[in-house]
Amino acid sequence: MNIAFAVIEHSQRYYDFYNELLDYIKRHFAHVESGIQGDAWIYVTQEEQTVAVDTFCSMQFEIKSDGKNALLQSVIDTIQEKYPVRIYDTPIERALIILLMQQVSSSPIHSVSRLLLSYTEAVRNRRHSHRTCGRCR
Fold first, then answer.
1. Half-sphere exposure (CA, 13 Å, Cβ side) for 27?
2. What is residue 128's predicted lDDT score, i.e. its pLDDT?
């Protein structure tokens, strides 16, 4: 699951919040796997779909999937019934962030600036809708 669609906003440390969140998710979904060791993770599966609720790339729980699907929406809706959830305007592709971070750690500062600009442009292009753009008609 490389795409983060939302984050659960809570004030507790994630390892203090984990058991409460896990119990809540288990009450609403039949197939749940979980663990905590350094980071916390909860996987909800239904048929061929899997949604992750984890802290692998954040200090708060992010809701992730490989793409938009019915289970993802169901998990978000269920969690929103009890906890504040912020839906990302643009889903965050973690693979791109990890690649960017690897580049940053080994690049001079001017290269980092170019990488950030490239990433920003890629996100902007992904949001572009040819149907509503005046330049594309």
1. 10
2. 42
Cα 1 from Cα 87, distance rounded (Å):
16
Mean pLDDT, residues 90-112: 61
**Among the listed residues 97, 79, 91, 72, the one whose alpha carbon sits nearest the alpha carbon of residue 20:** 79
Q: What is the model's pTM?
A: 0.69
Higher confidence at residue 123 or residue 82?
A: 82
Q: How far apart are CA 8 and CA 15, in angstroms?
A: 14
Nearest to 36 by CA among 14, 7, 12: 14
- Spatial distance between the Cα atoms of 21 and 9, rounded to a whole number of angstroms: 12
pLDDT greater than 60 at residue 109:
no
DSSP 41-57: EEEEEETTEEEEEE-SS
